[in-house]
Design goal:
Blueprint (H helix, E strand, L loop, with lengths): L6 H15 L7 H12 L4 E8 L7 E9 L5 E8 L9 E8 L10 E4 L5 E9 L6 E8 L5 H6 L7 E7 L10 E2 L1 H4 L12 E2 L1 E2 L9 E5 L2 E5 L7 E2 L7 E8 L5 E7 L7 E7 L10 E7 L6 E4 L12 E6 L6 E8 L8 E17 L5 E8 L6 E7 L1 H4 L8 E4 L3 E3 L8 E7 L4 E7 L6 E4 L2 E3 L5 E4 L5 E8 L2 E13 L3 E6 L4 E2 L2 E2 L9 E4 L3 E4 L9 E5 L6 E4 L12 E9 L6 E8 L7 E7 L4 E9 L2 E6 L11 E8 L2 E6 L2 E5 L8 E2 L8 E2 L13 E10 L4 H9 L8 E7 L14 E8 L5 E8 L5 E2 L4 E3 L3 E11 L8 E7 L5 E6 L3 E2 L6 E11 L5 E11 L9 E2 L9 E5 L9 E11 L4 E10 L9
Parallel strand pairs: 6-10, 27-33, 60-66
Antiparallel strand pairs: 1-24, 2-3, 3-4, 4-5, 6-7, 7-8, 8-9, 11-12, 12-13, 13-14, 15-16, 16-17, 17-18, 19-20, 20-21, 21-22, 22-23, 23-24, 25-28, 26-27, 28-31, 29-30, 29-32, 32-33, 34-51, 35-36, 37-40, 38-39, 39-51, 40-50, 41-46, 41-51, 42-43, 42-50, 43-44, 44-45, 44-49, 46-47, 47-48, 52-53, ...
Helix pairs in contact: 1-2
Length: 914
């Protein structure tokens, strides 16, 4: 954990930061108080999207750099890549400015546009003596790749340029080529930063401007009038960042260009302000997937408090660009004891800054699909490092497409559902103990699915609580998405003379060419059925006929099939090719690469953009069945393997990707390219093409379909295990536990409803306490989409005794003339649960006589007798006689109640009648 920091100490630290940022005047005490609050008050964290791929005229934004000026303006630089995510091509340097600490941002500015060429790797520093901001950058011809530049076959080389601003970034000078000043004449590939430079505060060269570059720094001792190179650093590193330590030592923190298997940051130091450098060593705590990183001082190197606090950021993973993490060092980078994740998803390059109020800013690449979907800007204070975040690790929806992909620090989403969707099942995932969860206002448990009936809902709220901290995720519901339309389906079980039958009935017959054959075999474990077999040696393939409805233009579509390659011996093996081959020709295709990766490529007009994505290698193996699916959804391509998302593209401009091409029919298994030796070799099964994009849950069902055609089986266990009353009635509360089993794709959720009410997701034992007959219906659903036939459980419960009212026709017998008086008893039994089962006359007795039955005639005890006679006579000694009449009512559950009444005989003539 971070060592405790006293509020007053941090307040003065921030005061010094502000003084350094505003050297031309003192900082007010009110500002210092605000800074103290920001640094050590309530934990603060905020993350926004700043540059989003496919917007503002650019295909992709990359390489973030952020600088806080002395006047407190935030300058956020990035590469605006016009036509693709490639490192070369038409790339501009763009800028957004914020005057309020990153809360709001101005419109996009272009700092460098060299036509179709590349202008990139922004690296910025401000000269505190005069306020001038220097921006270094790199240029190369757009058609030159890094490989061509390095091997000497390119048109030109990579050169270093600079521009400056004297008005806080509002305007910029024309870039100037610095090649002759700062680059050896024989260099071919070079790069600055990217991120920020520094200005020295120690030693004989105090005020020196320093820009990190490959293998050395670029320096100026005359405020930018001239620039030159520092001493060289041990080779095999690049993409550097530099920081000045409190004793004046310079420390470089570099990405590895060799020895990459170390997966650590390369560190070197200079004690003579850059003239010479120590050998490189590798920081054990700074794990790195070989990517650019950023480092910054929290306080200036010459701060009066002697603070040695450094801040470092990178994707903290050894193998994947993900988990953007910020670390703190209290000893000038000797150790890094504090680490906290800013963004757990895909992430890559970053740039750190310290704002005037003491909060830390991080501009970084990341996204839900790839590390390059967008550039985000996060701000947080030191107190945030000491606070345990309340968050969910995931939200899984049974239906629909969530945008963006769920990440714990993003609080607003859109769930796009098919038209007519009535319910969705949500499974919250939280690994942190103690997190309390609510879905739509009702308690939920981590890992337990909860089915929500949507009704008129337009948004769904999911709340996570940990102690006094709360985070609410808002999911906007969009139920306007058209349901996918299955346009083509070959199951290879129906073959005619004309070819493979399209079982959708749309007539997309598959014409078997060059020895393409339908052979016995199937994906299913029972091996029953038929598959398509193609032989690459014969160039066998299948032609799709009547393709008029397969021209998708800029619309969404899905291609899915099972593949079983006999060989993966060539660069790639084509599964389907729509359109015609060639540069600038609308087309799309999918293939399995030689290394077992799955690739999908799209090329569209009018901007002639090509988008290509590939999964990791080894997902498809020879001799094994694998399900693959390619989806175009809005501005993204997605590739699924065995039901799971395996690759995604950065967002692109869908309107610029019209793929319609009617010049040639789509071909399955055939290479239309000029190479013409990349045909499919092996088997295919269950080929499908949909209009519109399938949801992830739909893709998963296609994968599970061949293996699971049976619905789950749910068993209900009732406690008590048998009715404890009569006639099948329970006389106490009942608990029902549901257990669902599925041998195929496993149970995704079980739901129940009581007495025809709303279906509820089963999350634990259900207690039924309502008296009367409760009908409980329940069913399960598996991952293949099989829904169990609804089962019914009848639970009769009666916990209450019946009511009974007994009313005699006479309450007093008069006169006592020893005559027999007829008695008529009216009985009113009542039971609202199980109902009255029986009524019986239990007894009729008299008190004060040796024989309790004296004076009673025709009473049929043990029956429902209500008519009998009583003798109107007192006792022989003249004492008043009373008859005691008792009835019992019993309900069908076995509960009984008795009611006793008394009928008296008047003893003598009434006193008032004498």
């Amino acid at each position: 954990m971070m060592r405790p920091l006293r509020k007053a100490f941090i307040g003065w630290m921030v005061f010094i930061v502000m003084a350094a940022c505003f050297p031309h005047g003192p900082v007010s005490l009110s500002n210092a108080a605000k800074a103290e609050t920001a640094a050590d008050g309530e934990a603060q964290f905020r993350n926004i999207d700043l540059f989003v791929a496919g917007t503002e005229g650019y295909h992709t934004f990359r390489i973030p750099t952020v600088l806080t000026t002395m006047d407190g303006t935030l300058l956020a630089f990035a590469e605006g890549r016009k036509n693709s995510a490639s490192d070369t091509g038409d790339i501009d340097l763009v800028l957004k400015r914020s005057m309020d600490g990153g809360t709001t941002w101005g419109s996009l500015q272009t700092v460098c546009d060299m036509g179709a060429d590349t202008c990139g790797n922004p690296t910025a520093v401000q000269d505190e003596s005069n306020g001038r901001i220097w921006l270094f950058m790199n240029h190369n011809y757009g058609e030159d790749t890094i490989e061509e530049i390095n091997n000497g076959t390119s048109r030109g080389v990579r050169t270093i340029w600079s521009a400056y601003s004297d008005d806080d970034g509002a305007s910029w000078s024309e870039p100037v080529n610095r090649f002759e000043e700062v680059q050896p004449p024989d260099i071919r590939w070079d790069a600055t930063g990217p991120a920020i430079g520094i200005q020295l505060r120690h030693g004989p060269n105090q005020g020196r401007l320093v820009i990190p570059a490959i293998g050395r720094n670029i320096q100026s001792d005359d405020h930018g009038l001239t620039w030159y190179q520092s001493g060289y650093i041990q080779g095999d590193t690049n993409e550097a960042t530099v920081v000045e330590l409190t004793d004046g030592t310079l420390m470089r923190n570099d990405r590895l260009s060799a020895n990459k298997e170390r997966k650590r940051r390369a560190i070197s130091t200079s004690r003579d302000q850059g003239a010479t450098w120590s050998p490189v060593y590798y920081a054990p705590e700074l794990i790195d997937p070989v990517v650019q990183a950023s480092i910054v001082r929290y306080l200036p190197a010459d701060n009066d408090l002697g603070s040695r606090l450094l801040v470092f950021a990178n994707p903290a993973s050894e193998n994947v660009r993900e988990n953007m993490t910020v670390r703190l060092s209290h000893d000038d980078g000797a150790t890094w004891p504090v680490a906290k994740t800013v963004y757990s998803g895909h992430s890559a390059y970053s740039s750190l800054t310290v704002l005037p109020d003491g909060t830390i800013g991080l501009l970084f690449e990341g996204g839900g699909y790839t590390p390059y979907d967008k550039i985000m800007f996060a701000t947080f204070n030191l107190a945030w490092f000491e606070t345990e975040d309340v968050q969910l690790d995931g939200l899984v929806f049974s239906e629909g497409s969530l945008s963006p992909v769920f990440r714990s620090d993003i609080e607003h989403y859109r769930l796009t559902l098919y038209e007519g969707s009535e319910a969705v099942t949500v499974t919250p995932i939280a690994s942190k103990a103690g997190v309390e969860i609510e879905i739509a206002g009702e308690p939920a448990a981590p890992g337990i699915p909860r089915t929500i009936r949507l009704g008129e809902l337009d948004k769904l709220l999911v709340t996570a609580r940990l102690g006094h901290r709360t985070r609410t995720y808002t999911i906007e519901l969009d139920r306007s998405r058209p349901r996918p339309e299955l346009l083509l389906h070959w199951d290879f079980e129906q073959v005619s003379v004309g070819g493979v039958t399209d079982v959708t009935g749309r007539g997309h017959t598959g014409l078997l060419k060059n020895g393409a054959a339908i052979l016995p075999g199937a994906v299913r474990s029972d091996g029953q059925g038929h598959v398509l077999h193609l032989d690459a040696m014969q160039r066998s393939h299948v032609e799709i006929t009547k393709a008029d409805d397969l021209h998708f233009g800029t619309g969404d579509f899905t291609f899915a099939t099972w593949v079983n390659p006999e060989t993966l011996s060539r660069q790639r093996h084509l599964l389907i090719w729509y359109g015609t081959a060639g540069r600038g020709v609308p087309q799309w295709w999918m293939s399995v690469e030689q290394n077992g990766a799955v690739r999908m490529n799209l090329n569209g007009l009018p901007l002639n953009r090509e988008i290509g994505i590939a999964t990791p290698s080894g997902l498809v193996k020879t001799g094994e069945w694998t399900h693959v699916a390619g989806v175009r959804q809005g501005g993204n391509l997605l590739v699924y393997v065995n039901g799971e998302l395996a690759a995604t593209s950065a967002q692109f401009d869908g309107a610029a990707m019209n793929v319609t091409n009617e010049d040639a029919p789509p071909l399955v298994g055939f290479d239309k390219g000029t190479v013409a030796n990349r045909d499919w070799s092996g088997s295919l099964d269950d080929v499908r093409i949909y209009r519109h994009a399938l949801d992830p849950s739909d893709i998963r069902k296609l994968y599970q379909l061949p293996f699971d055609a049976a619905a789950p089986v749910t068993e209900a266990v009732v406690t008590p295990n048998e009715p404890d009353g009569m006639n099948g009635w329970y006389t106490s509360d009942v608990t029902v536990e549901l257990t669902a089993a599925d041998q195929g794709s496993k149970v995704t959720y079980t739901e129940y409803r009581l007495n025809g009410g709303e279906w509820t997701n089963y999350s634990g034992a259900v207690s039924v306490s309502a008296e009367g007959i409760t009908t409980m219906e329940y069913r399960g659903r598996d991952g293949a989409g099989n829904v169990e036939e609804t089962r019914t459980l009848v639970l009769p419960i009666d916990k209450t005794e019946p009511e009974l009212t007994v009313t005699p026709n006479l309450e007093v017998l008069w006169p006592p003339n020893r005559k027999w008086v007829p008695m008529e008893i009216r009985l009113d039994p009542k039971d609202e649960s199980s109902g009255i089962d029986s009524i019986a006359l239990v007894s009729v007795t008299t008190e004060g006589t040796p024989d309790p039955l004296e004076g009673i005639r025709d009473a049929d005890i043990g029956t429902a007798d209500t008519s009998f006679q009583l003798l109107a006579a007192n006792h022989r000694r003249g004492e008043k006689r009373a008859y005691i009449i008792t009835y019992e009512a019993r309900d069908k559950a076995g509960h009984s109640t008795t009611k006793t009444i008394t009928v008296e005989v008047a003893r003598t003539v009434k006193e008032d009648e004498r």
